């Protein structure tokens, strides 16, 4: 990897000011969560698979797995930013975390809190003395965790939000009349769709017996439906990974989304979701707050989960990019992050806000900053860019995503 090292600042007034403008390589190693794919990240990087599951590569300053800055110091990015903050009074932390995510098996169904909920929940657990590394801890920090994922594989399968309740009722009607299915149908009958879904999910996660869950899953396995073939096939697949887990039935209440390469979804606070299969670029607010709702052996706090979920049925939360001077920007309208997309084949410029991180996902790309910094990236490699190097120019040789603070 070719990196620039430090270069003199341009002197332009771009907000944060560092000792020198920086456009420099950073790197990290994959995290081996059990749900990770053994091949997707390795294939992207053009290397032999390690044989272990490779789930995520984090490009950011999160203390759980900070990237390394290749400027000669080999400091981790959190240490690099802390030193810059101490010396020059700039932001000590990034407001976002950029990831490569490779799902070889389904992730847990989960929801993230709003900022207000995170502040209140974190303070409550701190006051109660719950250790931050405790398995029963719900709030690891006091921040929200909205997120965007853009598909890199040809297809990326996800569950996102609660489906239109009439379609959910039609799916449940197709499952027959076993007693547990009838109990599920009864709970979904409330004329208030949000109330019906809240009651149903509370029952599935907190009250239904293992036998009742198994009966609903068995009914799905024996049902043939052209209209719901994809949902029933997913239920069967989830049952193989998590036998008789109540999350299988929760998943049947959710939007099943098949993203094509380059398509994205935005998951704000309160939206139930789970990534099922595929490779993507993910950007999120810098937080580790996750409340789980099934498809996991980890702790599920049903009452807390029910207090966070937005139970209103809605269409899948697709996020379409805006296009500015030929450059795509996935911007959900929050202050924490936006994600630029520099396509291969055409040279392009991208104006940056704050400290940014570029991640190459295809081909070989040369990035050049306004202050003269230059770095060459191939797929899977990343670079740190300080504001004085904005705008950054891509030579169009490959495909790059650029994370930055939001507007």
Walkthrough of the structure:
- By secondary structure, this protein is an alpha+beta fold.
- Helix content is 25%, strand content 27%.
- It has a domain at 164-252.
- The strands form 3 sheets. Strands 1, 2, 4, 13, 14, 15, 16, 17, 18, 19, 20 and 21 form a 12-stranded antiparallel beta sheet that branches. Strands 3, 5, 7, 8, 9, 10 and 11 form a 7-stranded antiparallel beta sheet that branches. Strands 6-12 form a two-stranded antiparallel sheet.
- Helix 5 (179-187) crosses helix 7 (210-221).
- The longest helix is centred in the middle third of the chain and has 14 residues, at 193-206.
- Its cofactor is Zn(2+).
- It catalyses: D-mannose 6-phosphate = D-fructose 6-phosphate.
Rg: 22 Å
Low confidence ranges: 1-15
Annotation, overall tally of beta strands:
21
Apparent shape: globular
Number of helices: 10
The main β sheet shows up as: 12 strands, antiparallel
Task: State the helical fraction.
Answer: 10-25%
Structural class: alpha+beta
Beta strand %:
25-35%
- Roughly how many Å apart are the termini? 31 Å
Mean pLDDT: 93
Keywords: Isomerase, Metal-binding, Zinc
Enzyme class: isomerase
Domain Phosphomannose isomerase type I catalytic: 25-163
Organism: Microbacterium trichothecenolyticum
């Amino acid at each position: 990897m070719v990196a620039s090292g430090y270069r003199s600042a341009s002197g332009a007034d771009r907000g944060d000011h560092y000792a020198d403008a920086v456009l420099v390589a950073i790197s990290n190693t994959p995290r081996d969560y059990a749900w990770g794919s053994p091949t997707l990240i390795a294939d992207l990087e053009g290397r032999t698979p390690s044989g272990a599951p490779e789930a995520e590569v984090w490009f950011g300053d999160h203390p759980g797995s900070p990237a390394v800055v290749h400027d000669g110091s080999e400091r981790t990015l959190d240490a690099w930013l802390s030193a810059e903050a101490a010396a020059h009074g700039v932001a000590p932390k990034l407001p976002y975390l950029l990831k490569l995510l490779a799902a070889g098996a389904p992730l847990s169904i989960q929801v993230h809190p709003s900022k207000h909920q995170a502040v209140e929940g974190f303070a409550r657990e701190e006051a109660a003395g719950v250790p931050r590394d405790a398995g029963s801890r719900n709030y690891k920090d006091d921040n929200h965790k909205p997120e965007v994922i853009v598909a890199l594989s040809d297809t990326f399968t996800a569950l996102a939000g609660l489906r239109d309740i009439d379609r959910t009722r039609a799916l449940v009607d197709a499952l027959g009349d076993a007693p547990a299915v009838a109990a599920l149908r009864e709970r979904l009958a409330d004329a208030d769709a949000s109330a019906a879904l809240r009651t149903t999910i509370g029952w599935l996660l907190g009250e239904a017996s293992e036998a009742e869950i198994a009966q609903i899953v068995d009914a799905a396995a024996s049902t043939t439906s052209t209209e719901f073939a994809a949902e029933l096939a997913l239920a069967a697949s989830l049952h193989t990974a998590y036998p008789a887990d109540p999350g299988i039935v929760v998943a049947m209440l959710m939007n099943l989304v098949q993203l094509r390469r380059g398509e994205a979804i935005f998951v704000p606070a309160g939206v139930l979701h789970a990534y099922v299969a595929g490779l993507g670029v993910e950007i999120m607010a810098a937080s580790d707050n996750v409340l789980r709702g099934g498809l996991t052996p980890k702790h599920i706090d049903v009452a807390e989960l029910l207090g966070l979920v937005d139970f209103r049925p809605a269409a899948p939360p697709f996020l379409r990019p805006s296009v500015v001077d030929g450059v795509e920007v996935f911007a959900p309208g929050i202050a924490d992050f936006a994600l630029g997309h520099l396509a291969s084949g055409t040279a392009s410029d991208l104006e940056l806000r704050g400290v940014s991180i570029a991640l190459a996902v295809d081909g070989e790309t040369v990035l050049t900053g306004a202050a003269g910094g230059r770095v060459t990236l191939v797929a899977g490699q990343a670079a740190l860019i300080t504001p004085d190097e904005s705008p950054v120019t891509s030579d169009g040789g490959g495909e790059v995503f650029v994370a930055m603070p939001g507007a």
